[in-house]
Here is the input.
Amino acid sequence: MSRRDLAVLAAGLAVAAWLVVRSTYGSLPALRWWLPLPLGALAVAEALGARTLRARLAAQRDRRPLAERPDAPVRPVEPMLVARLAVLAQASAYVGAAFVGIWVGVLAHVAPAVTRLQAAGGDTVTAIVGIVCAAGLLGAALWLESVCRVPPDPSSSSGRHRDQEPSP
Here is the structure.
C-alpha cells in the first residue's frame, strides 16, 4: 500500500468535506465529541493485535532453530490469520486516511468560525478528536500491515546463498 495513495485520499476528502460542510453547515446536526470514538477503539484493537502478533511471530522465529528445547511452548501462528489481518490492516488504513481527510475538512470550516458561531466551538473539539482517532487508526493499521509482512530470508541475499559466487 502506497503512503502517497493514502495522502491523496485524505487530501481529496478534506477538500470535498470542506466544500460540503461550507455549503450545508447550517442544516447539519450537532457534531458530538464522542462520534469519532469508534475509530479510536478500532485503533487500540489493531495496535494491541499488532503488538501481540509481532510477539508471537518473533517467538515462533526464535524457537524454530531450537526445536529440541520444549521448555517454552509457542502457539504457532496460522498463515490464514496473518493474511486476514493484513487485509484488515489495508482496509483500516484506507478508512483511517478517509476519516482524517473528512475531519480535517470539517475542522478547516469550523475552526475559523469559532468566534462567530456558538456551535463551531463544540464542532471544533469533535473535529480534533476525530483527527486524532482517525490518525491513530491509520498508524495502527500501517503498523499491523508491517507486522504481517514476511521478513526477508536471512540465509539468502537477493535470492542467492552467501556461499554461492555470482554467476558470470
The radius of gyration is 22 Å. Strands lie at 156-157, 160-161. The mean pLDDT is 86.
